[in-house]
Fold:
Amino acid sequence: MKRLIKNNVHWLGKIDWELRKFHGEEYSTHSGSSYNSYLIQEEKTVLIDTVWRPFADEFVANLESEIDLESIDYIIINHGENDHSGALSKLMEKIPNTPIYCTKNAVGSLMGQYHKSWNFNVVKTGDTLDIGNGKSLVFVEMRMLHWPDSMATYLTEDNILFSNDAFGQHYACEHLFNDLADQCKLSEEAMKYYANILNPFNKILKKKLEDILSLNLTIDIIATSHGVIWRENPIQIVEKYQAWCNDYQENQITVIYDTMWNGTKQVAEKIVEGIQLEDSDVTVKLFNISKSDDNDLATEVFKSKAIAVGSPTVSNSVLRSLVGFLHYMKELKFKNKKATAFGCYGWSGESPQVLMTMLEEAGFELVGDSFKVNWNMTKNVELEAIEFGKSFVKEL
Structure:
């Protein structure tokens, strides 16, 4: 069923209430998601994007119940990833000659995925497409946000920016619009989306935001590819992105650990105690990584000015949960964040130094020396752990 966005623009996507993992198993979607497709009906009829492949048959059937498919004059593919283009092949079986407008890289992406030579029309930033009634589509390349083929599309007169993956969230919301959504949930999911998907491209994003703003476009609605549509004060999410792409941090320290027999857990708790004693204003959060979600933890790191990471020594190294997570931190390319490491050991005690090396390789600035405890803590060692937490705060 199509839902009105504005004037002759409707949403024709799919709300996926059951989705719990995205990008394979890489991204947790506790709140589901949506795949947003849009239909514009002026003198020309335009379809912007489709939905994920598992919903292709449903999407095409719904679209066919709303309009004559032969009436579609243009298809715009802002991004070739399967969650956007997944129903395209099924749709093109019915209307094989319909022109598809996309970037040059998107042609390669779509042909590589679907092995079809459709009627591709390559566009670049500033190109326009007249759709009648005094309205045009303006194309803006969004290379590496977050694929090389990405672009956004702007509808003049109605002042709608179809922003592709930028400004979205993995959030299934029956109300469709930001002003009707749960504001806390929306804020959480928007930040998580940015931290886990867009943060590696901060420099590119910063420049692209400047480019978009320099076009002096009036933006009344930001129609995203996932999650809710920003219609009430849509620039609020642009302003958040401007803040987030500038090596964002809050007054927060996050302590992350894994443990075998609770020794490293106890050290972590004492370090947290020391941090709180030294600075009562700082927000301190403590997570056992084996009982936490990596994407949620990445969001906490994104908010943090510093982190402390702990593991017991295992086979002269660290627990594999920390190896995978710190590799992920390296992928996300966080900047302007400080770190230290700690851990327990019985025999050799390499884990804190291994963690320090991995943290440095992931782009964190190391603060002071690491802290390690042989076997379980005594009362004196507990005091040392508390002092370590205090010293860590002082050196930030």
